Amino acid sequence: MNLTDLADKYGSDKGGNKYRHTEFYQMFMLPYRDKPVNLLELGLQNGGPEKGGEVDRQTDDLPSVKMWLEYFPEGHVTGIDISDFSWFKDNRFSFMQCDLDDPDELAEVAEDLGTFDFIIDDASHASKHQQTSFIELFPKLKSGGLYVIEGLRDQPAKWESDEWPKTADLFEGYNKNGIFRHNDPDIEKALNDLRVDMSGAVMMPAFYVKAKRNNLLIVQKR
């Protein structure tokens, strides 16, 4: 089964029934399928605070984690979420609970992480969270590794403000001008400090239709 088949099998919205991200992932992940890769995913199940749910909600499934574990039979998956998923037990899965709205908590969690071949941010989709997570976690990528941010066009209003540019706009500006511009000088500096380790940043439009807005960001580490 390819990655899209597995996404649909486990009910992940990354597959053919929703966003179709797995069609793109399959292209660059297939050569690693039987290798002992390390993958980190932020956001493990729909329905969290970004959708009006409670932090202490009852969690009962990890669709994409199950997809990754079957797709990479020799790989290890680490999950980060604001809600508790510690009930899921698998020798190839680790879980760390973290509120991405708390930079200090995120930094503390990052200190305990190893390095990864793939990092996928499918958490709150909030611009602030996407950008602070990228700054903190991009250094955790191995050389040649890929950092992916999903949901560039689906930001929850509760966390958006004029102080934080949309992540799509931020990287579109970087691709055009070769430098990051941000309202927060500390964030701007942190992003520009990472440029030396970025091979490139590619954005894909929703459903791969050119007329639609960019919805998927892929950044490779040198």
UniProtKB/TrEMBL annotation:
In terms of InterPro entries, this protein maps to: SAM-dependent_MTases_sf
Q: Which GO terms describe its molecular function?
A: methyltransferase activity
Annotated keywords: Methyltransferase, Transferase
Q: Does the keyword Transferase apply?
A: yes
Record CDD domains? AdoMet_MTases
> GO:BP terms for this protein?
methylation
This one is known as Class I SAM-dependent methyltransferase
Question: What species does this protein belong to?
Answer: Donghicola mangrovi
